[in-house]
From TrEMBL:
Keywords: Dioxygenase, Iron, Metal-binding, Oxidoreductase. SUPFAM superfamilies: RmlC-like cupins. It holds the Pfam family CDO_I. The keyword Oxidoreductase applies. One of its GO terms (molecular function) is dioxygenase activity. PANTHER family: CYSTEINE DIOXYGENASE, CYSTEINE DIOXYGENASE TYPE 1. The lineage of its organism: Bacteria, Bacillati, Actinomycetota, Actinomycetes, Propionibacteriales. Residues 1-25 are annotated as: Disordered. InterPro entries: CDO_1, RmlC-like_jellyroll, RmlC_Cupin_sf. This is Cysteine dioxygenase family protein.
Length: 170
């Protein structure tokens, strides 16, 4: 698998002025963890593409980041969510995904195989497989993913519906 990591400025990162050194360090940790994982393992080796539901598994740690592998059957979606305070990066390994990013309005981008996305801790998105085949992606979160906030779009605004903590539901 070859992935091309974006050069600065990093796409998908909303900035209100300067990027903090903490955010830069977290993004670098996520980027490094993905690159190291891809260089030393075949993330698709044990993937079952016939599973009918979206699945996710923590497959490792590295460079101060958690690494997760997600399979996306056709029609599956994350729903609107954030990653707590974690910054991160993910690469689409097979198939394509559509990422809807919330910036006060929803903006969509189609991410094809080998596409890498990076994001900071303020990133709220919904990722969907609109394709007909199962997609697979590899994600890194730095620091490790400890919480996720779930949202619902109500009358043009996102409202918090729940906060999930590591160990409770995943």
């Amino acid at each position: 698998m070859t992935a091309t990591f974006p050069a600065s400025p990093l796409p998908g990162i909303r900035r209100s002025g300067r990027t903090s050194s903490s955010t830069t360090d977290r993004l670098q940790a996520a980027r490094t963890a993905l690159a190291e994982h891809l260089a030393t393992r075949d993330p698709l080796a044990h993937v079952d593409l016939s599973v009918p539901e979206r699945t996710w598994a923590r497959v490792g740690t590295g460079a101060g980041a958690d690494i997760w592998l997600i399979t996306w059957p056709a029609g599956s979606s994350t729903g609107w969510h954030d990653h707590g305070s974690a910054s991160g990066a993910f690469v689409v390994l097979t198939g394509s995904l559509t990422e809807y990013v919330w910036t006060g309005v929803a903006r969509a981008a189609t991410l094809r195989a080998s596409t890498v996305r990076e994001f900071d801790g303020s990133h709220v998105h919904d990722v969907v497989n609109h394709g007909t085949d199962t997609a697979v992606s590899l994600h890194a979160y730095a620091p490790g993913l400890a919480a996720m906030t779930r949202y619902e779009l109500v009358r043009g605004r996102l409202q918090v519906t729940s906060v999930e903590q590591r160990g409770e539901t995943w």
